[in-house]
Structures are given as structure tokens and as C-alpha cells.
Amino acid sequence: MREACEMELVHLGNRIGDTLVCDRNAVCRNHNDTNIQRRYYGPAHTDSDVSVLFEEADILHVGDTWWNGIYPFIDYSTDGSIDGMIQATERNLHAVTDKTIVIPGHGPVGNRSALAEYRDMLTTIRNNIATLKKQGKSLSETIALKPTADYDAKFGQFLITPAFFTTLSHLLFLRPLCIPEFSPDRCRGSARGCRLRTSRTAAM
């Protein structure tokens, strides 16, 4: 899946516009006088999450790395993890300003402030669950202790219930990270030289 995601990035570059510019984890194209940057996160919601930045319009589509105002689904079957979601959200925050329009995968169109609130929610719940895991709490004990309680009124009112989100987060701390590594000199206009590098999140 990760390799397929990388090739999809390259295929997009081969189809649109005149100039392909690669950095370590993105392809950039100019189409109809609009610079479009498509960037691969590494595993987050799944193992093939990609953002699209429309530079002139200052619009960033972040896909399912952001569920605005609701707990996200994290797909453990495709290497998703709460750590990956937090890292993806940090990258999104780094890419936007207070004026950027941010399009989530689910929920209303938002902005940097809402994205930061989402990051804080993920980080707090992740740390709460990590503390309980270190104390030797089982999944059922962790759910009973409600590590999401401070956020349930706002984020726990959609498909992903507090108990389900706790379950997903509890199971998904340690996942391999796939970090795309692009060489600008070797990657310009070609898939050759683009490779994937794997690493692993720190153990709890």
C-alpha cells in the first residue's frame, strides 16, 4: 500500500502540468497557473494518507488525518496509529497560517485554530491512555476510567464513540512509520531514485 501511494504521487506528476519538483515527501505541479503540492504523511489514519495544498488559494486538504470536531477512526489494519495521527496533525499545523482554509476528511471546513484544538485532544488522550497502560491497566479497565472524558461532550457525538476511540488508541501505540525519501536531483521528472524509508515510533 505504501509503495502504491508513492507511485500514485509520481503518476499525478506525470499527468498534470509541465514541471515536476520533488522534495523528500512531496510532488509539486503547476496546473492552470496554480501550484499544487501533494504530500505523503506516512502512516496516520491509514498507510496512504496524502494532503493537497493549493498554494495561491491558500487551501489545504488534509483528508482523514483530520476529523473536525469528532473522534477519528484510525485503521489499525493498514498501519494507522494515534501517534501517526498526531504527527500528521503537527505537519498540517506547520503547513498553514491563521488565514489558511483547511478541509478535513470529515466535519466542517476549518482553520488552524480548530486544527490545533484537534491536535491537543489527540495528544492529551494519547498521554492519558499511555499512563494507564504503564500502570498495567487492561483495555476494559482503561475504558472504564474514561481517559477521553474531557473531550467527550464535543468530540464523542458522532460515529466513533468514546469507548471505541479509547479501544483504537489503546491498541495502536506502536506502528511502523513509512517516511518517503525523495532525492530532488534524481527524482525530477522520474520515479527513479524515490524510495521509502521505514522507522518506528518510540515504545510507550
How would you briefly describe this protein structure?
Helix content is 37%, strand content 24%. α2 packs antiparallel against α3.
What do you see in this structure?
Helix 2 links the parallel strand 5 and strand 6. Helix 2 runs antiparallel to helix 3. The chain has one domain: Metallo-beta-lactamase, Chain A, CATH 3.60.15. The strands form 2 sheets. A 6-stranded mixed beta sheet has the order 1-2-3-4-5-6, with helices on both faces. A two-stranded antiparallel sheet has the order 7-8. The chain has 7 helices and 8 strands; from the N terminus they run αβββββαβααααβαβ. 34% of the residues are buried. The protein is 37% helix and 24% strand. The chain has 204 residues and is an alpha+beta fold. It is elongated.
Count structural domains: 1
* Overall mean pLDDT: 79
Report strand order across the widest sheet.
1-2-3-4-5-6
| Structural class by secondary-structure content | alpha+beta
Q: Name the assembly state.
A: single chain
Flag low-confidence runs. 1-19, 174-204
CATH-defined fold name: Metallo-beta-lactamase, Chain A
Radius of gyration: 18 Å
Topology:
Elements: H1 2-15, E1 21-23, E2 26-31, E3 34-40, E4 50-54, E5 59-67, H2 82-95, E6 101-106, H3 112-134, H4 139-144, H5 152-155, H6 162-171, E7 176-181, H7 184-187, E8 195-200
Parallel strand pairs: 5-6
Antiparallel strand pairs: 1-2, 2-3, 3-4, 4-5, 7-8
Helix pairs in contact: 2-3
Please supply descriptive tags for the structure shown above.
single chain; about 200 residues; alpha+beta; Metallo-beta-lactamase, Chain A; six-stranded mixed beta sheet; elongated; disordered N terminus; disordered C terminus
